[in-house]
Amino acid sequence: MNDPRALFDLTGRVACVTGASSGLGRRAAIVLASAGACVVGVARRPEALAELQAEGGDSVATVVADVADRSRMASLTEEVSASFGAPDIIVHAAGINTREMADNVTAEGWDKTLELNLSAPFFLSQALVPAMKARGWGRIVNFASLQTTRAFPGGIAYGASKAGVGQLTRAMAEAWSADGITANAIGPGFFPTELTQAVFDDTDRATRNAAQTCMNRNGQMEDIDGPILFLCSRASNYVTGQVLMVDGGFTAK
């Protein structure tokens, strides 16, 4: 039997991570680079990307871009392929939650949420899939949410987008897995990121959220390392079309 640790080795792979300037996207970029991949981080904030590149060293490159801007998709594909070649792995961690109550949802907030959370993962994947098909190997990892299956106050646009991510993941698997490209999603629970800052700023609310998990705690950044590495590596060769909830058992209760 071969060393099972080799299943998680990403040496020679190229990964593109959106939303890499902060939170779980940044964590994913560092984890994949630590596992041997060359990583291209994509986000809108150049200063934060510079910090990521400084930490990652020669194995990390960055591209400043808004992945929701569909008019830039062709040029973005070229930019993310410029440093290390076309990506084998794409992790869609960029996201937004406007937290508008249903009665107050604006057309602008609705469109912005769906464009970034749902449309961008599809169109960027669509642009990168041909190179994956040519190699007969690829990994697509979307970011779902507790709200993929649960309704939260102030989350109607976000929840609709993340429910869509669940079906998008299954549809991607149906479309592309026969070509060696798996498509899966991670559904994080409550992790301390910029997107959930408002939740963690409310100590009582954060405590209630922790109490709703089976583990009686909220997520810590290192809790995402194993799942992201599993879904991006050979360890998940026969796993596709799945949403892996990394939520401490929140959705099990």
Automatic annotation (TrEMBL):
Enzyme Commission number(s) of this protein: 1.1.1.127
SUPFAM superfamilies referenced in this protein's UniProt entry, alphabetically: NAD(P)-binding Rossmann-fold domains
A Pfam entry, by short name: adh_short_C2
Record-level Gene Ontology MF annotations: 2-dehydro-3-deoxy-D-gluconate 5-dehydrogenase activity
Enzyme class name: oxidoreductase
Membrane-spanning ranges: none
Protein family per UniProt: Belongs to the short-chain dehydrogenases/reductases (SDR) family.
The protein's name: 2-dehydro-3-deoxy-D-gluconate 5-dehydrogenase
Gene this chain is encoded by: kduD_4
